[in-house]
Amino acid sequence: MKTKFIYNILLAGGLLSATSCNDYLDYQPKGLLSSDNTRSASSAEALATAAYAGIGNDEMIGPMTSMWIYGSVRSDDAYKGGGGVSDVAEIDFYEHYNLTRPDLGSMHPYTWENFYKAISRANAALTSINALNETEFPLKKIRTAEMRFLRAHSHFMLKMLFKNVPYITENLTSEEILKTSNTALTNDQLWNRIAEDFQFAIDNLPAKQTQLGRANKISASAYLAKLRLYQAYEQDDTHKVVNINKTRLQEVVTLTQQVISSGQYSLQPDFAENFIAETENGPESIFAIQYSINDGTAVGRLSYVTGLNYPHGAPQYGCCGFHQPSQNLANAYRTSADGLPLFDTFNDKNVDFATETVDPRVDHTIGLDGHPYKYDATKPFSNSWIRDPGVYGFFHTMKEQQLATSASYHKEGPFIGSSKNIDILRYDDVLLMQAEAYIELGQQAQALPLINQIRKRAANSTGRLKKTDGTFASRYNIKEYSATGWTQDYARKALQWERRLEFATESPRFFDLVRWGIAEKTLNAYLEKEKLRRPFLSTAKFTAGRDEYLPIPQREISFTKGLYKQNPGF
């Protein structure tokens, strides 16, 4: 299986692993780092490699890569799953929006800590690189740009999750770090500071890198486009969207066009190829967290962040049945006789896969009884694999998993790891970001061919979905949108629908709803009906002005003696 450059030098379990969370940011690991032993090209290169490793150093508790807990389970896409509501009960708190006290929960504090560890690694690398001239370190400009890209990624993720976060650079002293408030910058100012790092990467990185996994000019343009799209939806202090900034939207169009016109990326011919290890790092992957197996270490550089989410009853897996798609999501894949979504009536009844037509992406996303499991027709998914159907129903998540026969798969005790990359940015996202910007600019005609590219690819992505007899378990019918009736309102609805179906269970759903300013309306409408199907949701309620973001970890507020300010409502 693959061996990837970026994790071949991991510095034995985490150089700078203690430099994180703000109570650790001024900690100096004994015997590892000092200004004396980092002033060399080899040290700078090793620190840069450690910074790349840092953005993938998460686990089931403290996610950084897959946001299935924060973005999928907190949305209308999925339930927690597992062995009932008390099994890893903290995820149930997120699903019910019951984190009403900032000292509840341990996952998001670890996520906060893990991202600041990653920022610390990037800053340590920058400090080492800054001390060298280009004669000593010919790669100085490129590596500086890469480290600023990685730092921007971590700050972006923190801002998306927590909104108000301290912005930490390599130029701050330990004392200055401890005096940096999470509200020192306004919402817009914080977006712009993160954007400066991405812009530096655009200005100083090559369009292509010879080694897999490194950021390049085009991936930096794509990421800055994503940031500007989020920034365009301006929020007040209670997270309400009060304006959509047209200037920022035009920046999104310009930046995404740089990606598209580069010719460097394209849609995979088959949607499935985004979700199997054998076709990773393909033309659609713009930036991904890289993992490896059979790389000379004991078990490889594997991702375990989704290790709870494999089928529980299947003998080749056996753990643990988490992250089950919702009935609402399954119903959203229903299509009309014209092959289009049923925007207003999709949820009036539960989809019948034997008689109704559906979007093919449902069988890439949801494990269904009798349907091929993960493109292996010889092992169809079985309802007997579901751990607690009485609570969570019979649907199972699919995208994040690999077959037990895949060379990327490894089982460590009861938990499952994989060397399959986790994509942070894909080309389908770029197309839909540009389409969204065009729609909100009132240029929806420009968005139509972009959205139809996505739908055309979905229609052509059925080759791996056949049963052993050559037939399909579902009745597929998906067509492109027509220019007739393509008003701004209709285009907006189509765009939002397309994003949901394209990225379902991959986590963007919750963050999209917050960005659009429709989280409270959408999620409470979802809960009103879904709790009748799944009584465990009976007490769930989304509270606007609070639940759009996670609480600032109480231990950070306590450590800074109140310098950090809590988010509203907690």
TrEMBL record:
It comes from the Bacteria. The keyword Signal applies. It is found in: Cell outer membrane. Keywords: Cell outer membrane, Membrane, Signal. GO terms for cellular component: cell outer membrane. Residues 45-229 form the SusD-like N-terminal domain. InterPro entries: SusD-like_N, SusD_RagB_dom, TPR-like_helical_dom_sf. Belongs to the SusD family. The keyword 4Fe-4S does not apply. It holds the Pfam family SusD-like_3. Coiled coil: none annotated. Residues 283-570 form the RagB/SusD domain. PROSITE patterns: PROKAR_LIPOPROTEIN. This is SusD-like protein P2.
